[in-house]
Structures are given as structure tokens and as C-alpha cells.
Amino acid sequence: MVSKSQIKLITSLGQKKYRQKNGLFVAEGIKVIQELLNSDFQLEKLFACEAIFDVSEDQFVLADVRDLKKMSFLKTPQTALALFKIPQQDLEEVLDELTVVLDGVRDPGNLGTIIRLCDWFGVKNLVCSKDTVDCFNPKVIQSTMGSITRVNVVYKNLAEFLQSQDLVSYGTFMEGENVYQKKLRQKAVLVMGNEANGISLEIEKLISEKISIPQFSQSQETESLNVATATAIFLSEFRRK
Amino acid sequence: MVSKSQIKLITSLGQKKYRQKNGLFVAEGIKVIQELLNSDFQLEKLFACEAIFDVSEDQFVLADVRDLKKMSFLKTPQTALALFKIPQQDLEEVLDELTVVLDGVRDPGNLGTIIRLCDWFGVKNLVCSKDTVDCFNPKVIQSTMGSITRVNVVYKNLAEFLQSQDLVSYGTFMEGENVYQKKLRQKAVLVMGNEANGISLEIEKLISEKISIPQFSQSQETESLNVATATAIFLSEFRRK
Q: What is the structure's pLDDT at A94?
């Protein structure tokens, strides 16, 4: 049976400060939990309607639909919810492959989509500014669909990180060079900016190559591409060659 | 002042059957409303905290923050909400340019993103199966950011539509040919499938060319790309050449 204090703990994990205090995050649904169990992530507790996973007795808590509804961050709760330990993640000292860098991405769905894209396109390291949304946010974990187990997400002071690397850095700007006509190096960092403001002034100074996706419509009103769809197109351009 | 019956009407427009019955849809926020006002869409009523738009007196209703909160479909209500008439949209008889076709896309956010992508990449016509989410759903309208005024979205029996066209049809399948190595024709239809099941069997038979985006990660577990990000990459491939 699920205790009141467990429900209180889990709902508190919607907030970053409680995730950090407890060193725990929430994953929901069989697919995501299974992938986390198959990876290096460490299970703390599993709450489920039946014993569907092979976990030790003291890690398993039988939960009914009402309990799961109280704990869930989803509109439609799944049949299982798990707590995992937040791992210590860091980078190798020097990177020599394509790395994605996020400067202030705020939307959990965008970060989740970008982690999935990194997984698809074989990008192992995703470096986020400290003001980028936390990758252990329940919505991010949900939308990564398990990709979080294959992409190393780290939070860094971006200016220091970029200065410490010898790689060419590509940044996306409206006035950047047409990415379709540009020779892209594979050993590089690709910097994507905030949803509303793009790349910050501090980071812009550290970008070696400005690139953009040309617009094909005639209208002045057309909104720029969303950061997740733009990342999809840039990663596709890096890998297609 | 906003009447109770107006609030009741507006909240009912979250459902497709009431949108169809009343021939109206909801748009929220200054940017989206302004773009609709600048287009061929016809305003029915505007509710706002102040007279920010140049509309006739009988179309304007002064609304306070509390009213807007009751009417809004957003977590954070905007300072303006408007009702527009649902237009009659149809296609030219014969298409001779790149057209996107959606077979059963269900998520409003995905449809909104795809409409924005069509706008960016200059795709004028988006043909949706009857079971694709309604483009006048408030969440779709919101996420299109005004692109709905520049993309002609029509709902059709897809099998009949595809049979009536002479264009080559590209469909996205896991086992399709590598899109990076394929010569793509510009006068074509690009068919994208449902989030969970892809393109339906009925439509698969009508596809002339199966294409795919290669996966660059080694893992068997990697989830296939989301329909909106895949559409971004395919449209980029069509236009880059």
C-alpha cells in the first residue's frame, strides 16, 4: 500500500528543489520505466498495479488506480510509476564529436524532443545552460520516451564550457549563413537558443559560425521555427553528409 | 460586459461538434488575433481588456481578467480572446506543387507544429484525413502562431484524394529508402502517418515511394522520431535541393 508520505514526496518531485533535495525523479509508464531499469539508472521505488517488473521486494509497492492518480503528473495516469535516483553526470574533459548545447531552453516538451533527437542522431552529449529546464522534470522524462538513458545531459556554465573547448561552434541566428550551402564539420558544437530570445549576447560572442535555415514562404509574418524542429533540421544536416 | 451565455458558448467551442454547429472557433492572444484580422478570416466577436484592435463597436466586448480566465483554453489567459468564423476551405482541382498529407495525426500540438512548418517551407496546401485532429481546435490555433492564415488546411477522404491526383506520393516508413540518397520531386505529395501506427494500410497501397530518415544511434530501443520533427526533416530535404 502507498503511504501518505510517499504520495507527498512524489508530488513534491514536480519541483526542482525537491528533486535536488531528495536526489530522486519520477518516471511513469511501462516503456520508460523498463528502459530506465535496463540502464545504469538506479531504482528507488516502484509503484504499480501488479508485479510487472523484476525488482526486489523492498523496492516494490502495490498501488491501486486511485493511488496512481494521486501521484501521477500525467492527465491519464499509467499503471506504473517509479522513483529513480538522480545520477551524477559529467562530461569527458575534451569532446571530439558533435555535441548539442542549449542556451536557456525553457519548455519541458522542447527539451524532451531534443533529447530524443540527440538519441536518434547519435549525439552522446547534451550540454545545457544552468537556466535550461531540468532534464529530470517529470514532463521531460515522459517526453524523452527512454532516450534519457542514452544521452548524457549535463548542466554547465556555458561560457566557461565553450571557452574550454577547441571545437568549432555553430550557433543559430536569423541572419546566419544558409545551412544548406555550408560545409559542416562533424567535430563541433551546435548551440540552440531560448524559445523567445534565441542565443544570449554573452554566448553569441563565443560562436564561431552563425547558421540559419532559410525561409521558403514569402510572408514577413511567418513565425521562426520552434527550437525543437530547428534542432531536428540542423542535426539532419550535420548527419546527412 | 461578457454575458453568461457568451462564456457558455466559448467554452463549448473546445469541442468539435459545437464548433461545427456554430461555425466558430476561438483564437487567443494579440499576435494570433492580429494575424487573423489581417487575413481573410472573418471576426465574429472580440473580447479584450481594452480596445486594442480596430474593430466595429458591435464586434467588441469589454472583458475583465476574470471573464477572460473563464473563457480561456490556456493555462495563462491572454488579454484578448476572439471568435472567428470557420471558413469553407477547399483545394484547387489539380495540385502541381509540394503538398503535405496527414493520415490520422491526433495530437493538436503536432498538427499546429506541422502547419507552422508548412508555412515556413512554403507549402500552401495541407490535406488531412477525416480522423486527423481538427485544425480549429483551440490548441491547434494557438500553436500555429498565425500560420493558419497562410496554409490551406482541408479534410478529405484520403484514398479518394490520392487516387484523384497524378502526383508522385512519398510516404514515410521505417523500411523506406534513405531520404538523403533519394532524388525528390518537387511536384509531389508527402504523406505522414499517425503518431502510434504510422500510415494506415489503406493509404500505404496508394504510396508510390517509401522513404525514411536513417537512425544514427546504435540502440535498438531508440524511439522513432515524432511526426512533427520527422515532417521538419522531410520538408527540409524537399526544399534544400
A: 61
Within an 8 Å CB–CB cutoff, is residue B223 touching chain A?
yes
Amino acid identity of A45?
K
What is the complex's ipTM, to 2 decimals?
A: 0.91
Q: Is A75 on the interface with B (CB under 8 A)?
A: no
Does B220 reach chain A within 8 Å, measured CB to CB? no
**Who's near A31: CB < 8 A, 6+ residues apart?**
A145, A146
pLDDT of residue A37: 95
Q: Which of B97, B182, B184, B240 to mutate to test the interface with A (most CBs of A within 10 A)?
A: B240
pLDDT tens-digit map of A66-117 = 999 999 998 888 889 999 999 988 877 667 799 999 999 999 999 999 999 9
A163/chain B closest Cα distance in angstroms: 28
The C-alpha of B16 sits at a distance from chain A's nearest C-alpha, in angstroms, of: 20
Chain B positions touching A35 (Cβ under 8 A) are 221
Kindly identify which residue of chain B lies nearest to residue A227, measuring between CA atoms: B229
Per-residue pLDDT of chain B (241 residues; tens, 9 = 90+): 899 999 999 999 999 999 999 999 999 999 899 999 999 999 999 999 888 888 898 999 999 999 999 999 988 888 899 999 999 888 776 677 999 999 999 999 999 999 999 999 999 999 999 999 999 999 999 989 899 999 999 999 999 999 998 899 999 999 999 999 999 999 999 999 999 999 999 999 999 999 999 999 888 888 889 999 999 999 999 999 7
Side-chain half-sphere exposure of B215, counting CA atoms within 13 A: 16
CB nearest to A226's CB, from B35, B116, B225: B116
A-contacting residues of B 94-113, CB under 8 Å?
109, 113
Residues of chain A with C-beta less than 8 angstroms from the C-beta of B115: none
| Domains annotated on chain B, with CATH | 4-85 (3.30.1330.30), 99-240 (3.40.1280.10)
B38, B223, B240 ranked by CB distance to A180: nearest: B240
